[in-house]
Amino acid sequence: MYDIFGKYGSIRQIHVDTANDTHGTAFVIYKDIFDAKAACDHLQGFNILGRYLIVLYYQPNKVTKKMNIQKKEEELKELKSKYGVSNDD
């Protein structure tokens, strides 16, 4: 991965997820935002070993929003259990 993404600038870190639900996902962190933009522009749809890359910018607001939704769902589940509310409609 360093060979492919390193062509566009200095890389600070690459993190590859190995969990079943995120298999095939990686985070590439560049030292310079302009290098990250160049990589996104040039590597979108790039074919590696028969798989096409989908290159996106990290969006912390979306991650935070998703975490908040998960927290709300957990709280709702606990309240339903506490007050004996079933999920049956």
Automatic annotation (TrEMBL):
Q: Which UniProt keywords apply?
A: Coiled coil, RNA-binding
A Pfam family found in this protein is RRM_1
The source's domain of life comes to: Eukaryota
Which chain positions lie within coiled-coil regions?
A: 62-89
Q: Which GO terms describe its molecular function?
A: RNA binding
Cite the InterPro entries for this sequence.
Answer: Nucleotide-bd_a/b_plait_sf, RBD_domain_sf, RRM_dom
Q: Which organism is it from?
A: Jimgerdemannia flammicorona
What's the name of the protein? RRM domain-containing protein
